[in-house]
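Why show two proteins at once? Because comparison is the fastest way to build intuition. When a single record is shown, students tend to memorize it. When two are placed side by side, the eye starts asking what differs. So, the first record is below.
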Amino acid sequence: MFNRYFYNEGMRKLTVAFGTLFNSISCKTLDSSGNVTQSIRVPLAYGPKEKFMVRLDQQADLDNREFAITLPRMGFEISGIAYDPGRKLTRINKLKRVKSGSNKTYDYNYTPVPYNISYTLSIFTATAENGLQIVEQILPYFQPDYTITLNLIPELSIKRDVPIILNSVNYEDSYNGDFTTRRAVIYTLEFVAKTYLFGPATTQNIIRTVQSDTYTDTDTTNKARESRITITPSPTSADPDDDFGFTTSIQNFTDGKTFDTTDGNDS
């Protein structure tokens, strides 16, 4: 089962999409007349909250600005992965699509597995005003969820709507230290994305003829055939993506011969 390599990039696509939601947030500074004196696009990076906290602690002196971390800024990371049994579907359903450039084979994938991916978004600012600006640009879109569409399996044209739910918002403000110590206002937002993970895709030949044999009784040792039903597409040269019908032919038998199910020959 685990000797076949595959990588659908499902979690990577979700993580990129999650980060994209917050990569255009700005902070503005106004003068007494309401004119914009400064506009800053808030930097966004993937990384744990502790990484940014260490930088703030190590370069907390305002007199050493050459190496201090730039505020405001944001960081996000995956904080948890959990199976979601409430969205489980039957395993045997297939999602199919005719293989590109061929009308004789198709690719298919089985029903995906539901997973909840947790994300933590951390916001670091030097002033309370900047923190409020950033948070207010985020919260109105989550009521409490915001839905994005991901192209999870492009080969099969499989797209899924993934709701991203805002679970909590935490706030902390550091006042410790003297007047030369940098102040850090930190917001921590917890999200969960309800996505699906797909297994490996498989290629299979397209079934163009279906044949069914009926018998006079249920005797498994001496099967006297009664009829054979054959179904083919009409026209037989139809492409699987076309709109076509079916031709059904029924062949009846009265000779009482038995039928060998192993090779399809009369006996």
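Second record. Ask yourself what differs from the first in the token line.
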Amino acid sequence: MFKKFSMRVLSILLVTMLVLGLSISCKKAKDDTGSSTSSKTNKAKNPEDYKATLTSWGWDDTYWKTMTKAFNKKYPNIKFEYTPMANGESLQKYQTALASGAALPDIAWAIIDSRGKLFELNMWEALNKAPYNFDKSKVFDYLDPILVNSKGDVCGIEQSICPAGMAYRRDLAKEYLGTDDPEKIAELLPDWDTFIAKGKEIKEKSDGKVFMIPSISDIQQIIRDQDATKWFDGDTVQVTKALKRTIDLLAKFRDAGIVDKLDAWSPAWYASYGQGKHIFAGCATWTSQFVIQPNDKDGKDKGHWGLTNIPEGNISWGGTTLGIAKTCKNKDAAWEFVKFATMSKEGADVLKSIGMFTTVKSMYDDKEFASFKDPWFGGQDTGKYFLEKIVPKIKLKPMSKDNNVIHDALNLVTTSLNNDKKMTASDALDKLKSEIKSKLPNMKIK
């Protein structure tokens, strides 16, 4: 009897201990989930439940005001503090803040020119990892090399695609090329040698009054970015392999005298878009809004411009990513904004309203979504042309933290080559190697 009773008590005790053990384990599991539990809670939030003030530094007031206004219609309790800055200042400002311990912006922007070095700074949330889990396959494949740092982590998502083709003045194209049809112009000028030869004809026919393009710097950037060859291979800079053709062509353009001597981004360069002296100009999705429209006042009514492919291949020109700083105290709210601005249908509609286009491939399943008819382009559907004709011909090289060194050295050599008629392409290539070596003394220059 006692034995039976003991066994019964022992069974009850074992069951009790098992229940207590399970209870403790469940509590521990619940506590150990940390951000995952928080993430699940956040996913269940309604937009109005998010309450935060987010800071950001940027250089496109129109984009920021338009996007945050639309966002606040859905998320009324997230406020923004925006500090304007020039895009060229971003690297120094981030570096200074990190070195001094000053506050970084919650939502951080990264311009393409310095992005290779920016993304190596220890300040970015890895958006491809939990709790964000951004999937790169959702955006255009060609963007892959410029969204990640050297570890393969996504540090930011592109605000919009920035494909670039060639804009052309319709009136000048009709007069000197015999057509203003974009497909026929692309067929007439399939490569740079043909482009240069045609430029010589036009120079003679116009008594030197009409140029093919405003600045040799424009040509340099286009040709430089058409080639997807890596600039850096381990401890070697592939100058000859990656940039010799650029230098050779620049010398040909200079000697042909078909490029005006304007400094890119100078007041005279901007003004040239309204003067009707240059047939072609590089044209990204943002060019009409920021360059053509403010400087060609008659262009809207007269439809001065057309859009076509660049000889030998199109490029991605410009671009800005949105990322989240590690120091951000309201990362869940910041992620809601980044998702809205870069991945949502609402954000895509906002971009389109200001002539920009989302990077998300699925948005274009609706063929009409890409449609955008710019009055400065004479009713041409430039939106569809960018997506259907220009994007497929873009290839991008991987980023490096020292890309800006190549940019600066190439700009310097381009100016020297253009100003010194006696400088040969071979001289210019040697000078380029020397300039890069002086900035990167520990690298092999090949």
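One difference worth noting in the second protein: The chain has two domains: 49-161+318-365, 163-314+376-445.
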